[in-house]
Amino acid sequence: MKPNFWLYCILFSLLLSSCITNKDVVYLQEKGTIASDSLQIRELSKPYRVQVNDILYINVKALDEELVNIFNPVSQENTNQNQGGNSGLYFNGFTVDMHGDIKFPILGKLQVLGYTVQEIEAKVKEELLKQYFKETAQIFVTVKMAGLRYSTVGEISAGVHTLFQDRVNIIDAIANAGDIKVTGDRTDVLVIRQYPDGQKIHHIDLTDITAMKSPYYYIQPNDIIMVKPLKRKALGAGETASQTITTVASIFSVLVSTYFLVKNL
């Protein structure tokens, strides 16, 4: 009975350590890190500041529509038609160059690096009034990011994605990419973020509800979301108990066959 006993112990241990549980795959769990009588979390989201290679959509309106056509290379109609691929904005939008400038009609180069879209709106309006329009023109300037572009790699559907929203949290971004695979490690998702001085890697535990308080819960343009595999996958274990039993049984069968083959030689 001893060999069988130890075999059962080994099998049971493998099942406990190899199976992927609910704790591995459920998002935003309450892990005792906040008061149990309240699940209200204060989200941290700072205004995004424009960086090099960002593409801006800028629209100018005034009482005389003909006067503002030169400032609007991308019409609202073309913008709506290109929401699937963002190609119109790529060719006709305003790209922030390596010096942090955009080339704007009539006004020439405008420094926008490190500005929020609200600050760019105010700056463009100020320059238009100074160089081209009068106060009576009643101009109105709208500045938006030309889609929030991000990438996903690892244990998630890999690809480059664009969402036409001002704010996108990491859960929305992952859902848009098709969700993390069962074998993905949700406890340590990497967010690779671009900064003026280079890129930095940040970590966020998406199985903990306090992730909503993280400064990386809301993604930014050009973020890379990287999902590592669980150690169970790296070890080749199954995703479920039945898969693990099948794997162990197969290994055991091979070992037994090898043992008797060698013994009979």
UniProtKB/TrEMBL annotation:
- Domain Polysaccharide export protein N-terminal, first and last residues per copy: 45-143
InterPro entries the record matches: Poly_export, Poly_export_N
Q: Kindly indicate whether the keyword Transport belongs to this entry.
A: yes
Residues of the signal peptide: 1-23
Q: Which UniProt keywords apply?
A: Membrane, Signal, Sugar transport, Transmembrane, Transmembrane helix, Transport
State one Pfam family annotation: Poly_export
Spell out the molecular function terms from Gene Ontology: polysaccharide transmembrane transporter activity
Q: Where are the transmembrane segments?
A: 241-262
Q: Which domain of life is it from?
A: Bacteria
Q: Which PANTHER family match?
A: POLYSACCHARIDE EXPORT PROTEIN GFCE-RELATED
Identify this protein by name: Sugar transporter
